[in-house]
Amino acid sequence: MILSNCKALKELPKDIGKLLRLNELNLAFCSSLKALPNSMFQLKELKHMNLSHCFELGCLPDSIVHLSQLKTFQLSECHKLENLPTEFGKLQSLVELDLSHCSELGCLPDSIVHLSQLKTFQLRGCHKLENLPLEFGKLQSLVELDLSCCSQLGCLPDSIVNLSKLKTFQLRGCHKLENLPLEFGKLQSLVELDLSHCSQLGCLPDSIVHLSQLKTFQLRGCHKLENLPLEFGKLQSLMELDLSHCSELGCLPDSIVHLSQLKTFQLRGCHKLENLPMEFGKLQSLVELDLFCCSQLQCLPDSIVNLSKLKTFQLRGCHKLENLLVEFGKLQSLVELDLFGCSELGCLLDSIVDLAQLKTFQLRGCHKLENLPVEFGKLQSLVELDLSCCSQLGCLPDSIMDLSQLKAFQLRGCHKLENLPMEFGKLQSLVELDLSCCSQLRCLPDSIVDLSQLKTFRLSESHKLENLPTEFGKLQSLVELDLSYCSQLRCLPDSIQDLSQLKTLQLSECHKLENLPMELGCLPYSIVDLSQLKVFPLSESHKLEVLPILLIF
Please, what is the average pLDDT of the chain? Predict the structure, then answer.
């Protein structure tokens, strides 16, 4: 029987128990339902019952424990449910029980430990639940247990280590949980353990290293965690380890290099982490390494270049990192390298051009970076390059024009950049080019008009730019052109009328702009009837005297 979303339904008929062959009862989202009739116990064939989102349901009838065939019981989001029947454990056939977000549920009946067939138990978001029954470990069939966001849960019963079949254990957001049972390592079947945001958890028991099947271990946001067990490297099956925002974690145990199956390692925001183990390069399976905002990290161990499978390397915000390793180019599988905000990084060593698979390279905010390697153009797979706010970068190497796959090139705020390579137009795949705030840029190379795929071109606040190339109109794919605050720009070339795809043209604050091309209206349907042009600011163009006739509308 499916009665879900009957939001006005307040009660069921008292003789519902006469439906002796009823197999399923779905009352999900019956938000006005306040109680169930006692005759429910007569539904001997009932196997599936869904009472989720019955917001007004305050209690269950004691007779419900006689539903001997019941296998799945959904009670999630029953916000007024304060307790379960004392003899709830009589539901011997129960395989799945969901009490997620029963926010008034303060305790579980002791009898619940007799649910011998229970495999999945969801208690996520039971904010008033302070403890579990002492003999909770008797739930021998349990495979998945979710206690996420049980924010009042202060400890786990010692018996929990007897859940020999448990594979997934979620404790995320249990803010009052200070420690785990000493023999936690007895959970030999455990594959996934999530302790993220257990902000009072100060240490892990040494026995945790015996979780031989553990593949995923989440410790993100455990702010009081200062160290890991010395033999942590015994977790030989571990594939994903997240220690992000463990802000008190000062070092990693040397044994961590023995995690031979580890593919993803997150250390983002570990502000006290000063170095990595010398033999870190032994993590041969590592594919992703995140050291984002490890603000005390000053150098990388030489062995890190041996991470032959590494594809993603995040070093953003490592403010004290002064250089990369001489043999950094050995990271042949690297696809993404993020050095955004490495403000002490003074140079890139020549070997970096050997990163043949590199597609995304972030160097934004590397304020001390003065130049790029001469053979930078060897990065043939590069698709995105961000050099924004590299305020000391004075020039680009000529080889940069060999980046044949480059689609996005960010140079915003490169204040010392005076010109671009003469053959810049060879970047035939370029779709987006940002030269905003390049305050020393005086002119563009004529070849720039050969960028046939370019759609977005930003030149705002290029204060020394006086003109554009005569054949600028060859940029046939251009959709957005931003010339705002180009305070020395005097005129636009007549060829600009050929930009047939142009939708946005920014000319605000171009104080020296005296006139626009008289045939500007010849832009096919972009200026004539403004059917394509969406934005065309001209504010503060103090010297502009005449608008083309066809621009008047």
Answer: 91
Q: Identify whether the C-beta of residue 77 lies closer than 8 Å to the C-beta of residue 56.
A: no
Confidence tier at 553 by pLDDT (50, 70, 90): very low
Map out the domains of the chain as residue ranges.
1-177, 457-553
- Per-residue CA distances from 2 to 5, 22, 26, 97, 321 (Å): 9, 11, 5, 19, 61
Q: CATH code for 1-177?
A: 3.80.10.10
The pLDDT tens digits for 426-446 are 999 999 999 999 999 999 999
Residue 144 falls in which region: left (phi positive, over 0), alpha (psi -120 to 50) or beta: beta
Q: Whose CA is closest to 147, among 115, 169, 128?
A: 169
Question: What is the DSSP secondary-structure string of 87-129?
Answer: TGGG-TT--EEE-TT-TT-----GGGGG-TT--EEE-TT-TT-
The residues near 552 (Cβ < 8 Å, ≥ 6 apart) are: none
Structure tokens at 241: 């380890």
DSSP string, 296-347: T-----GGGGG-TT--EEE-TT-TT-----TTGGG-TT--EEE-TT-TT---
pLDDT at position 6: 73
CB count within 10 Å of CB 249 equals 23
Confidence (pTM): 0.89
Q: Note whether 52 and 26 are within 8 A (CB).
A: no
| DSSP bridge pairs for 169 | 145, 193
As a whole number of angstroms, the distance between CA 346 and CA 8 comes to 68
Whole-number Cα distances in Å, 12 to 34, 227, 320: 10, 56, 67
Angle at 33 between CA 31 and CA 34, to 5 degrees: 120
Q: How confident is the model at residue 211 (pLDDT cuts 50, 70, 90)?
A: very high
- Integer Cα distance of 177 and 153 in angstroms: 6
Phi-psi region of 323 (alpha: psi -120 to 50; beta: other; left: phi over 0): beta
pLDDT value, residue 548: 54
Q: What is the pLDDT of residues 498-544, one digit of tens each?
A: 999 999 999 888 888 877 776 555 544 333 333 444 555 556 555 55
- Contact assessment for residue 510 and residue 484, using Cβ atoms and an 8 Å cutoff: yes
Residues in the chain: 553
On the question of a common fold for 1-177 and 457-553, the answer reads: yes
Contact 11, 30 (CB under 8 A): no
What does the pLDDT read at residue 14?
Answer: 82
CATH 3.40.50.2000 fits 457-553, yes or no: no
Map residue 266 onto helix, strand or coil. Answer: strand
Percent of the chain having pLDDT more than 90? 82
